[in-house]
Structure formats: structure tokens, C-alpha cells
Write a structure and sequence with these properties.
About 45% of the residues lie in helices and about 5% in strands. By secondary structure, it is mainly alpha-helical. A 4-stranded parallel sheet has the order 2-1-3-4.
């Protein structure tokens, strides 16, 4: 290759590199300004980007950034029941633990709860945690994570390495095609009239959420609820779509570390709070009778019966002053009754 051809190739590569860099910079700037997931909220203008519909489909992502911004001292961890049912302004909270944030979200696993607890504490020391567990969670089943869960976006510690890792994850989000698409949709949806059903403190507003216009419901309420039932049944079946057999629970499965199970992550949460002297309140959320009927219909009732057996989370190193209140986490129905009697945890007291 002669010198002129080499110069032409270098010039071409330089132009291509600069063009790609300029395009990437434009995408980063555009996504930062529109901010469809509420990452930084540098610019919020009504009619431009104040309404952010993308956050309702990427709740895990949205709440990871919301925690960074709010820096709460008290949080709620749990699934949709805690997301809707626990009010952060209730007088039962520690008055010194402010601000507060509802960090629960739909379908949260105990693994995700643990990582979000560490994330919140790394941003700002947590004083109080209310942990709402569904009846299926204190078990030895594997604790997985949902597809939209990204641990790279969550702080583990306050170290420089952790901050660098999170910064790179932020850049990955800002430069993605999905974020660019969400930004465009955000601009186009400013006047769609959709109600906002996230409170500023992270709680899902039930009186708004459950009264939204549902096209399927308007077309046929029966078809709407039948579809919900099909989803519930699908959650309780195995990956092959078959009804699980009772014998399947006795068959040897792949070996798993105890702390990688759903119960194991609950133990991690308890140990984390104990080590940092965080006030931890745990309660078992009630399961609707309709869901129990579905469990019986698909042959999964034996698993619910097994969950009635008592499981414990033991904290042997807990200081004597707190050992009595934090020694065990029981999953029996008696604990659920006790939680209902506690005005701090009662559903009626926490309802907005």
C-alpha cells in the first residue's frame, strides 16, 4: 500500500471514528435530557419530559435511580403487596428515619431484595427496614432474578471501584437503543392523559392504579379475569407447562449453596441488618383465597402445606438486648396473626 492510500485509509478511519463519537454523544445528550427512566432529573418540563411512562415498565431500573436521588434512611422491601399496602408517612415509622422510600416492586425475589438493600445502604446509611415476605418465599427453593434486574446498576459498597462500575452501567443504559426508543416515546406521550400512579416516596397508589382504563376489561370483564387466572396458573406450573407432582419435591435436584436459596437470602438480609444495627421489621403478607384455590386446582397445594412448617432464621451473634426480638423468623400462620395484631404492621393501619 503506497503512502497516499495509507493516508486515505487513516483519514477514513478518523472520520468514521469521529462520526461514531459524535453520534454517540448526541444519543447520550438526548437521553440525558429527556431522561425517560428518571435517572438524573436534570431537566423536568411539563409537556417535554415530566410524564415518564417508561418507569412503569422498568420499575426495578427506575427505583434503583430513585434511591440514589432520595437517599432514604428507611425503606420497604417486598413484592406488590408491600408496594401498594405500606404507606411511608405512617406514624409507626421511626421519626428520625427520614426520608423514607418504598423500595418494593412487583414480583420481587428475596435475592433482589437483598441487593437493593445493600444498594440503599451504600448510598445512605439505613436506619429502618420493613420486609414484607410472601408465603412462598421463606423456602429452600432457588432465588432467581427477573430479566430486567441488573446488579451492575446497584451499589454494593461506597468504594471507588463500586462507583466506577455503576458509572459504566449508567453509560451503557444512556447509550442503548432501548433508552433512545423510550426517550422518543416519552416525548410523544406527554399529552396522553395517563394518570401517575407512583407516589414521590415510591408507593404504588392503589386508588389510581386499580382504576386505570383497561381496554381488555372494558371489552369483557370475564375475559379479563380469565386471562389473569391463566397467568396465575402459569406461575405455578413448571417450565414444561405440566402440573408439578408431589414426588418431584423429593427428587434430588442440583446442589445449591444454602445462602443462594430464597430462605438463604432472607438470612442474608437479617444478618446484614443485624451487623449494621438496622431496625428490621418482618411480616408475612396474606395470600388471597383465590390464589389458594388456583394452587389446589393445579395440584400445588402440597407445597403450601409444607410451607406451614416452621422455618427459622437464627442470628447467634445478635447482642443480648435485641436477641429476643430478632432470633427467629417464623413462617407459621401464628406469625401472620401476630403481625396483624401489631398496629405498626397491620394492613388497615398502613393503607393510604
Amino acid at each position: 500500500m503506497d503512502s497516499s492510500a495509507a493516508k486515505t485509509a487513516k483519514k477514513y478511519c478518523l472520520i468514521a471514528g469521529l462520526s461514531a463519537g459524535l453520534l454517540l454523544s448526541c444519543v447520550l445528550a438526548f437521553n440525558t435530557a429527556v431522561d425517560p427512566y428518571g435517572m438524573y432529573r436534570l431537566i423536568e418540563v411539563k409537556g417535554f419530559n415530566l410524564h415518564k411512562p417508561a418507569i412503569y415498565h422498568r420499575t426495578r431500573l427506575f427505583k434503583a435511580y430513585d434511591v440514589r436521588r432520595i437517599k432514604p434512611s428507611a425503606i420497604v422491601l417486598g413484592t406488590s403487596r408491600s408496594h401498594v399496602g405500606l404507606r411511608m408517612s405512617h406514624e409507626g415509622w421511626d421519626p428520625t428515619a427520614t426520608p423514607r422510600y418504598n423500595l418494593a416492586f412487583d414480583g420481587a425475589t428475596t435475592k433482589e431484595m437483598y441487593f437493593y438493600l445493600r444498594h440503599a445502604d451504600a448510598i445512605h446509611p439505613i436506619k429502618q427496614v420493613v420486609l414484607g415476605l410472601d408465603i412462598y418465599q421463606p423456602t429452600l427453593a432457588p432465588s432467581s432474578a427477573r430479566p430486567d434486574f441488573d446488579p451492575e446498576l446497584l451499589f454494593e459498597t461506597r468504594s471507588l471501584i463500586s462507583r466506577l462500575r455503576v458509572t459504566l452501567a449508567d453509560l451503557k443504559i444512556l447509550s442503548s437503543i432501548n433508552t433512545l426508543t423510550a426517550s422518543v416515546k416519552t416525548l410523544w406521550s406527554q399529552n396522553d392523559g395517563e394518570p401517575e400512579w407512583f407516589a414521590a416516596d415510591g408507593q404504588r397508589l392503589g386508588e389510581v392504579f386499580f382504576r386505570r382504563y383497561e381496554e381488555d376489561f372494558q371489552r369483557s370483564p370475564r375475559a379479563y379475569f380469565d386471562e389473569i387466572d391463566r397467568l396465575e396458573v402459569g406461575f405455578k406450573l413448571d417450565d414444561s407447562g405440566q402440573v408439578p407432582l408431589k414426588r418431584a419435591s423429593h427428587s434430588p435436584g442440583p446442589k445449591m449453596k444454602a445462602d443462594e436459596t430464597s430462605l438463604g437470602y432472607i438470612q442474608r438480609i437479617v444478618e446484614f441488618c443485624r451487623t449494621r444495627r438496622i431496625d428490621l421489621r418482618i411480616f408475612i403478607t396474606p395470600e388471597h383465597a383465590h390464589q389458594m384455590e388456583i394452587s389446589a386446582a393445579v395440584g400445588a397445594w402440597h407445597s403450601i402445606e409444607k410451607r406451614n412448617a416452621t422455618s427459622y432464621v437464627y442470628c447467634p451473634k445478635t447482642p443480648p438486648s435485641t436477641r429476643a426480638s430478632r432470633r427467629f423468623l417464623s413462617t407459621t400462620s401464628a406469625d401472620t396473626t401476630q403481625s396483624r395484631r401489631n398496629p405498626f404492621l397491620s394492613q388497615a393501619a398502613w393503607r393510604r
